[in-house]
Amino acid sequence: MTRRSPEPQAPAAGWRGGWLRAARRLASPNHDARPAGAVVDLIVVHSISLPPGEYGGGQVRQLFTNRLDWDAHPYFAQIRGLRVSSHFFIERGGALWQFVSADQRAWHAGRSHYRGRSACNDDSLGIELEGLEGHDFEPAQYAALSTLCATLARRHPIAWIAGHEHIAPARKADPGAGFDWAQLSRALAGSGMALPPGVLFQKQ
Fold first, then answer.
1. Is residue 2 domain-resident?
2. Helices (H), the chain
3. Which of 28, 98, 170, 176 is the most exposed place for a label (fewest CB within 10 A)?
4. How many domains does the chain have?
5. Predicted structure pTM score
6. Which has the minimum average pLDDT: 43-47, 79-83, 102-106, 194-198?
7. Which family does it belong to (predicted)?
């Protein structure tokens, strides 16, 4: 699919550059520039918890800012030295954090392919939900996520929303079967943003 050149947009209210004023800002060094001409039209939904299944300890924020103590838990030996980030992170209670400017390329997708394009980091925004893949998420997280998606769509020409599992199916399974795509679809009704085929029937 051919990339379209971005059209000039007026500064969006509620933003300071690529930083959303409503989010708690904690800058990550794990980012770089998007390629010239990249059109940010995809939102990728992830899930993460550190250690897996444990919430509220701050380790996800530490990972994204290269401050995680690799010796603090046996699981961390498996990810020692990992340098990753996401644009946004939504905690179980709905608190919203931002780690990378929306104008920059966060390191969240890895090897990926979606809507006819590879390297989804180039033209996507990554949103991490605090949670374990396959498990349920909290109402406050859905509320924060739907608000954030709508906010991002007012600044960028967002046309698609997908899970990490949809853009890297051979490697990733998040956010998994516990994520309620139908709930997100209802919240974003009329937005024109397309969800992955078949997801509305996964969770009943």
1. no
2. 59-64, 139-155, 164-167, 181-187
3. 170
4. 1
5. 0.93
6. 194-198
7. Belongs to the N-acetylmuramoyl-L-alanine amidase 2 family.
